[in-house]
Write a structure and sequence with these properties.
The protein is an alpha+beta fold. The chain has one domain. The chain has 6 helices and 6 strands, in the order H-H-E-E-H-E-E-H-E-E-H-H. The chain has helices at residues 2-11, 24-33, 76-82, 107-110, 125-133, 139-150; strands at residues 53-56, 71-74, 87-89, 96-98, 111-113, 120-122. The strands form 3 sheets. Strands 1-2 form a two-stranded antiparallel ribbon. Strands 3-4 form a two-stranded antiparallel ribbon. Strands 5-6 form a two-stranded antiparallel ribbon. Strand 5 (111-113) and strand 6 form a beta hairpin. The longest helix is centred in the C-terminal third of the chain and has 12 residues, at 139-150. The chain is globular. The chain binds zinc ion. Residues 38, 40-41, 43, 74-75, 77-78 line the site of zinc ion.
Amino acid sequence: MTALRCGALVTGIVTMAPSAYIPRHLRQLVAERATFRCEYCKLQQELCPETFEVDHIIPRAMGGQTALDNLCYACPVCNNAKRSHITGQDPQTGRRVRLFNPRQQRWYRHFRWSDDCGYALGKTVVGRATVEALAMNRPRIVHIRLLWAAMGLHPPSEGS
Ligand SMILES: [Zn+2]
């Protein structure tokens, strides 16, 4: 497994959790479109030991299609937290809103980084609800972001 991960780092070939219903070529397209970052928390695949996954933004159980405009690249933690949710509660206003949709919305319109770059902060009701619902500031990832920031690997540019 370690050799595979190292190989992925060297070659840039993406290895994702097996999924019976998302064809390999589609998974590769989703990963490349996302520049190999989680489209929710912006974690970079090449800096993580976990294999990233492809998320159905609108879950299949709710009629979401396995098509590029309904798929996004997600780290396992975001994907697991999101599951079949499409809405979340804004902790500031209490409003329940649709979660961030990477296909229809721009990340930097709804989120920003804290001054030390450790925390993803919601700028809008959608951003705040998504940060909360996906636990985007879990302690380990905040620690990792701070380390990456010290190494100049974080935050990603606005185009990423
Ligand atoms: Zn993530």
